[in-house]
Amino acid sequence: MRGPHNIWRLIRTGATLERTGAMKVVLDAFEAPRAVRFVARALGIPFKFLGYYGDPSMPPATRALTALGPAYIKFGQILSTRPDVVGDELAVQLRVLQDKLPPFSVAVAKAEVSKELGVPVDQVFSEFSEPVAAASIAQVHRARIASTGEDVAVKVLRPGIERAFNKDVDAFYLAARMVELFAPGARRLRPMDVIEHFDGVVQGELDLRLESSAASEFAATTKDDEGFQLPEIKWDLSARRVMTLGWAAGVPLGDNDAIDAAGHNRVELGNRVLQLFLNHALRDGYFHGDMHQGNLKVAPNGDIVAYDFGIMGHIDEYTRRVYAEILFGFIRRDYKRVAEVHFEAGYVPADKDVDEFARALRAVGEPIFGMDASKISMGRLLNYLFEVTERFGMETRTELILLQRTMVVVEGVARSLNPQINIWEVASPVVSNYISQSIGPRATLKDLAKTARVLARFGPRLPVMVENALIRTSNPQPVRRENSWGKWIVGGLILGVTIGVSGSLTLIAVDLMFF
């Protein structure tokens, strides 16, 4: 499906933002420079009639994103947790994207459940409510199991969501290819890899059997975490497009008034949600990758309850150690060590200057310490960090995309509970504990023991493996050159169509900025 026809989709993105009134809202929220505003408006206004109309009862940004489709909605969900980046007004507008989108009918949901489970809904559930939450990919119903009387949540995928999502992502692939072709300086960001990663993550959300499995694994790794709980998966009532789990009672984590009325301590909750995420990422290497307010509740006993496990992150032990050392270095304000870790891990090219990179990192980190968190502009901080990474030729690390994105989301959740939170002070005990357990003499002994076990397992085969490697080295196979004419022809067609569409490249760039 990928090809020049997707340019139409990208043009309509800019046109929809203009037609719904979202263009100005978004540009203001991101404090876009005057030149960007001029280009965006100049190219958006002529194509305005091509944009989707959307639901006029919604705020402009929400109206535009819901009209554009599920991939855009996903992006809006992330931004809704960052009022310090997009402003309080836009964050409130976007928050309805988390679980308050227009639902599909309960009759359609029941038909889908009956089809997936192979039995009539009334035989399985004695009660089946109207939708209680509707998000971009699925909606949730409260039900009661007929045989046990237990209250459960039944998650059902939206009809046709797979095709709709693939259409959105298809256009993003073209946009990423155009960026690689016409903006060589952006290749270090590996836009195609980023889109492929995003595509793979959300494809996992489109099979609820995988989500059920992820929830089960997450429950096993977090079963001893104090102040944290997960609803139980009902495997016998789950399938590819239907997932059933225990009902999560409590107050939504995004409703501060309800949290205060229930007598919960928001400062403590903000600290706990951040520390839980860091523990899951560093200690377990397996974390909830979509921890916005729409997926979190506060139980009556004060526990944080997480649900919606369609996006889960996994990082290997080596990457966890690198990530922890970077965080620990910032916490200790040891920017030289942070710079060295980047070089040791290969994140920065070896021909760059370590001391110069350390000074650049100091300029990023120092404004954080000793300041009221509410006065820190995370938007400006991220913008400067991007300039630093571009200057030193850092490439996008695809294995860290979800971790970095979730860290941004979790920090936004914590800050919505406590605007004065200092993420470095809250993170310090978790990171310090992980460092003491995973880096040092004790960790070295564990690594040696693991290495010995691997060598013992492969010991009998090592001589043959070494011999085969030496043979391949001494007799290299001729390099096979693939015919690239087809790629050049396709690239030429894409280039020709792209140049023929007035202003399309600029709209692609603007669209990518919002994505």
Describe this entry's structure for a reader.
It contains 24 helices and ten strands. The radius of gyration is 25 Å and the shape is globular. By secondary structure, it is of the alpha+beta class. The chain has four domains: 4-98 and 499-514, no CATH class; 99-247, no CATH class; 251-439, no CATH class; 441-473. The two termini are 20 Å apart. A hairpin with a 5-residue loop joins strand 2 and strand 3. The strands form three sheets. Strands 1-2-3-5 form a four-stranded antiparallel β-sheet. Helix 16 (335-344) packs across helix 17 (354-365) and helix 17 runs antiparallel to helix 18 (378-391). It has helices at residues 7-19, 22-29, 34-44, 60-68, 70-79, 83-86, 88-95, 106-117, 121-124, 161-182, 191-205, 208-222, 256-261, 266-284, 317-332, 335-344, 354-365, 378-391, 401-417, 423-438, 441-458, 462-474, 485-500, 504-514, and strands at 125-134, 138-145, 151-157, 228-229, 242-246, 251-252, 286-288, 296-298, 304-306, 312-314. Helix content is 58%, strand content 9%. Its EC number is 1.14.13.-. It comes from Roseobacter denitrificans (strain ATCC 33942 / OCh 114). One of its GO terms (biological process) is ubiquinone biosynthetic process. Keywords: ATP-binding, Cell inner membrane, Cell membrane, Kinase, Membrane, Nucleotide-binding, Oxidoreductase, Transferase, Transmembrane, Transmembrane helix, Ubiquinone, Ubiquinone biosynthesis. GO terms for molecular function: ATP binding; kinase activity; oxidoreductase activity.
